[in-house]
Amino acid sequence: MTDSIKNKKPFEVGIYSFVELTPDPTTGQLLDPTQRMSNLMETIELADQVGLDAFALGEHHRPDFISSSPVTILAAAAARTKSIRLSTAVTVLSSDDPVRVFQDFATLDLLSKGRAEIMAGRGSFIESFPLFGYDLNDYNELFSEKLELLLRLRESEIVTWSGKHRPALFEQGVYPRPHQEKMPVWIAVGGTPESVIRAGKLGLPLAIAIIGGMPEQFAPLVALYRETAERAGHDPAKLEVSINSHGFIADDSMQAADDYFPSFQQMMNKIGRERGWSGMTRQQFEKSRTLRGSDFVGSPDEVIEKILFQHKIFGHQRFLIQLGIGTIPHAKMMKAVELLGTKVAPVVRKEISG
Fold first, then answer.
1. Rg of the chain (C-alpha set)
2. For the whole model, what pTM was predicted?
3. pLDDT digits (tens, 9 = 90+) for 77-127
4. CA-to-CA distance for 285 and 107, rounded, in angstroms?
5. What are phi and psi of 101, to 5 degrees?
6. Residue 298: is it exposed, middle or buried by C-beta count within 10 angstroms (0-12/13-18/19+)?
């Protein structure tokens, strides 16, 4: 399968973050939100300096995250970086206004001189729906309709459009226009075939979140995406796939695991209690960071091996890692970013291009 997927550019490696604001698992102390944001800016700057390809921010409306307005943070990052692409992971399009989303990202694109991307999805939490007055019964219809409008806005400066969940537009101009001729819009999915089929039919790049299970389980989704795209008249070889997963990196494998696990367990157990999951054990965690597990936690060599292992399965063009879940000391986070950019990414790019 992978032999037929011709990479038109070097394999991309990047980071995504939800900008957690959670208690330190060992001290119980909560970082000041201003300091947390300052730490994030330093992380993005370093990611740019060490040559990583993308930095993406999730949109959440909860007390344990401070990224309810990712594009605002990305605009600040645009002024402090030079090359790294700036994306969301994800923009919860269902509960937002596509016109405003397009305007915000077009502005970010101008500020960054063409480095903005939109990763649109339905989100892993539902707080934004009641917050902005949307009915969860319209969950699927909202996303389909608003994605249609967003893509129309990307194609045309003057738009005529009507739908059920937003006032109609009649020959109205939407400004500013972005720096890029066609600003990238990715579709982010968690594993539903319907979402994969939608991305394939529209010929949009696909981001798959693999945060549990074995990667082989997701291979049929990537195949379905490419088959659907081809049937819809798109060239599958020109469509990008990103694999987005949790992980952490340190010089030593066990050090990476020990640094990562306490905060990861704390966050996963909190979300688990909300959703009726059982608690996470260290044994389960250790299994998840083996070669066929979902998490990329270990030394640079282990992370390299795992990315290349998954590339044989998916033939993907991008890998994004959520470095750290919950609160990890800033110095250790910066070290992980440095290792990803200087030790992991160059080897992965060379091996895949070869």
1. 20
2. 0.95
3. 999 999 999 999 999 999 999 999 999 999 999 999 999 999 999 877 899
4. 41
5. -60, -45
6. buried
